[in-house]
Input
Amino acid sequence: MKNTPLFLLALLLLPVSGFAQEDSFSDLPKDHYAYEAVTYLRSQGIISGYPDGTFKPDNKVNRAEALKIIVAPLITEEQLAQAKEANTVFSDVSNDDWYKPYVELARAAKIIDGPPEKDKFNGGNLVIKVEFMKMVQEAFGAKPKTAFSEIKLPLAQDVTNTDEWFYPYMRYGITASMTMISGEGTLTPAKQLTRAETAVILHRFIMYEQKRRTQALLSEAESEILIILTFLEKNDITEAEYASARALLAARGAHAAKPDESIVQGAVKITEAFRALVRGYRAGVEKDFDETIRLAGEAWNLSDRARAKNSELAQIADQVQVISKNMADSARTEKEAAANVQE
Output
């Protein structure tokens, strides 16, 4: 496209002030989990309801509908008119389809893949979570493939292969608080989304772009630390490893938004410390006692640095150091016992 890229026009969506309260949809009470998201997006003209005054939050969303939700507010009338006149390049999209201009604008902006990567859009297919997250991230110019690329760790039971095409979008989704772990320990990248769920994901991302999700990310990092401790008590190192990766990403996402806040700087060091602890436990299981001792020392030092960044982190830093000492002492004892057996 010759006009302004979509991700720059997206800045129009980011007023830092609050939003005017509007009458809610008849089927979306104030205690509904998506109420805040839907109300905000409605106030910005991003989503709308049905003529009967309902929102139908549980209705599933197809790919064409999902793409319009993302693209429509980011384009000008001129761009839309030009796209209506252009021919589509997708074999399963007709020039008469209502969503054709949105698809072509999105393809030109690289929000979705076109030929030669994909020759079909599959607009009638229900949109899955990671597809929607990808489209949102690409529309706003998030660079998910390069952002946080130094972290390439399994994230959950259903996101273990870091080479999967969707991995960067799930990774970035955690840093931007678009998604979090379920009670079953999954991130559900293939979940078919409802209207309410698409609203929540998009709203969280816009709030993150406004730097208004920092506390949510810090809270998520704290929750993941509790998960780490729970699974270490159960000797479930794999789940603890997943949680340590998610905790680190949540803290790093907060840091990317507000790098100068001392509590955020300290939170990064605390999550790095817990990552070292989990790696130390893994090394101990594998009888690499020297590595366990080294990682225990690393966790100890990182917790010291967290405490220095912000005194509010002193209690959790102390907890890390107690665990570190116990882990290192245990490793030394086992190392000595193993040496005695060999003698």
Observations:
- Confidence is low (pLDDT under 50) at residues 11-21.
- Residues 6-209 form one domain.
